[in-house]
Please model this.
Amino acid sequence: MASSTMAGAHDHPRGLRRFLFSTNHKDIGTLYIILGSIGGVIGFLLSLGMRLELAYPGVQIFPGLAEALQGADPSMALDAGKNLYNVFITVHGVLMIFFMAMPILIGGFGNWFVPIMIGAPDMAFPRLNNISFWLLFASLVLAVISMFVEGAPGMKGFGGGWTFYPPLSSNTGSPGPAMDFVILALHLAGASSILGAINFITTIFNMRAPGMTLHKMPLFVWSMLVTAFLLLLVLPVLAGCVTMLLTDRNFGTMFYDPAGGGDPLLFQHLLWFFGHPEVYIVILPGFGIISQIVSTFSKKPVFGYLGMAYAMVSIGVLGSIVWAHHMYTVGMSLNAQRYFTLATMVIAVPTGIKIFSWIATMWGGSISFRAPMVWAIGFIFVFTMGGITGVVLANASADKQFHEGYYVVAHFHYTLSLGAVFALYAGFYYWFPKMTGYMYSETLAKANFWLLFIGVNVVFFPQHFLGLGGMPRRYIDYPDAYALWNLVSSSGMIFVTLSLIVWFYAIIEAFMKKRLAGANPWGVGATTLEWTLSSPPPFHQFQVLPRITGASR
Amino acid sequence: MFNVNRRMLTRGALAAAVTIPATLFAGFALAQVEGQPTPGGLGLPNMVTPVGLGTQQFYNMVLMPIISFIALFVLGLLVYVSYRFNEQRNPIPSKLTHNTPLEIVWTLIPVLILLFISVPSLRLLAEQVEVPEASVTIKVTGNQWYWSYKYPEDQGGGFGFDQMLKPESELQPGDLRLLSVDNEAVVPVNEVIAVHITSNDVIHAFGVPSFGVRMDAIPGRLNQTWFKIEKEGVYYGQCFFICGKDHAYMPIVIRAVSREKYNEWLAQAKQKFASADSRVRVAAESH
Model:
């Protein structure tokens, strides 16, 4: 053992030991991507269940699902089915945010490429990195278990939406332990992210290679830096918020119970103080990825680099002071609603700067339409679509018509299910050759893009119409007038499902064909440090630190 | 079922193809019945209150044209650069990375657009939030899973009732599945109605799309909103905040009638609902 410790710096463990006990940023990144993919697939299956149910008016499949999944008694199947639908929407939200987008974008791509892009051998705290990952794994287990223990009286799972508003999440609405499982899952996921954020900030501030000044860092690293700060600032608020809910539920406190002088609105303020920055936590790494890709395939440096970096900083700052735009209908004072309206609209300015700078990067470029670039262009369009409905919803006055309706569902799925997911796929296809050493089939990657692009637009665009027409969200059944657009929306899931199958096949095909990618498959536009390493990179890179000279971006 | 859907689909597609973006969501009359959702509808419902009309105008005249323009502008730019600057057409990339005037322009123009939006937005907001002098006040309480209404004594009321979803088996011709209820709440037309909203258990939200009204019902808190219905009719709403398994099964029905008919209804309702047992039932269910 002693001798192997001596050789520790160049230790290359194999098999289970390599992954279970890993302190290597690339291996941990890979674990995160696998965990995120599993979370994403489960989250997708949940949404498939919801869209199948909503394809036609009436309640069709959830009673049967409740019997099959949760062992519901047939005489209670209808009620259990209605409850299970709510459990599905809740767990879908939790999984997609905490166990799909965040692990892949931050834990996966962040771990893999932040150290490499700044010329560092690894993350600052490798063991912290390991526990960040395994806390998240434990958290996922708790979240999934919550679906199978009692929540509302006689019902299994917590079905109150991913925002967990009390009193539905307190003993009034969900006395069973399901909600406690969810709270503990959030504690672990939060601790995992806080530790990860500390790791990223330390790494970026202290481990940049000589010459890699902050203003020379690739924009992906900037995006991770802003994201890490946001995580560090807002996750403790979430932790406090749900801990008070935990003590309300179990130890007789009354933070959120008006009967004891508490206030359910306190929970909402705390939750959204975390929750709104959270959506930027999910999208900012995507911004970083898109900047790298657009620059690489336009064979041009990013247009307005400093503007791009500080636009992300200002999005992070502004994103932290607009939380109550999720609460326009709670009965806030007129002045508070005025402030949150104006502050929220201001975010459109830095976001616009980003969109226009990406287009200006392409302007005058020599664009090669490889798969990652196609995904990136798709991202710019769908994110713009989500952004402009965001401007609509920023207005407290207009929001009164759309709040908790399908317009909102369409809006945030355009920014996240399309925006963040397209950025994630763009990054996946951009870095897959680097991470594995193998090139995927360009045709499959593009088929994956077109199927998903058509699919998600067919799913979510008609939901604007449903929202305008007044359909509330989180409904298992709806008035017959909404039948047409629900059917269209559900039919889009055919394409989405096919796109996932193509994605899996593209990965399998790449590993089977073993086409070697080489160090830099993307040519002269790929100027960041990861393309100077072999594909896949050595277990420990930069034994000799690279020296950065000249303007890197 | 399939035929109906196909017909609606064709009609919707045809209509979508002929309308230009600015009017796509606006004033789209597709067999609209006031107060209830339009089958296959593309836009906002017909509004019947000043606030609702304000919302409709703000969305259709200001927001919708602006966001459509921005979406098409960005799409146009993406298509153009993809065509003009692909590697076949433009093999040598330029090294352009800065253009300060351009960056100032694309920062300032969005600011101006937002300022332009904010003026009508804030005006409408004040109209929504500031409740004018009301001639009728009703109290609405959310319960798992129905709404209760109370009409105050000093305004000729002094009774309360629960409003429950009509089960599918009891629907009459003209009733709407998931929207029709046993007891409609009646209010006079062309008068300001103040609504006090709270909840007995978990959070619900009182929303009627054709009024432009959506307000949370939160336990321990008395929220207030208002509407002035300018057209007689029956208006349907639903619960807009997830409240448990029957969230989708607690609709709202408001019937707007003339003052005379309202007075008649008040007298009848007083008889019908003032009986002790309905009060006892409300009390029993709220604990």
In short: Confidence is low (pLDDT under 50) at residues 1-29, 276-287 of chain B. The radius of gyration of chain B is 25 Å.
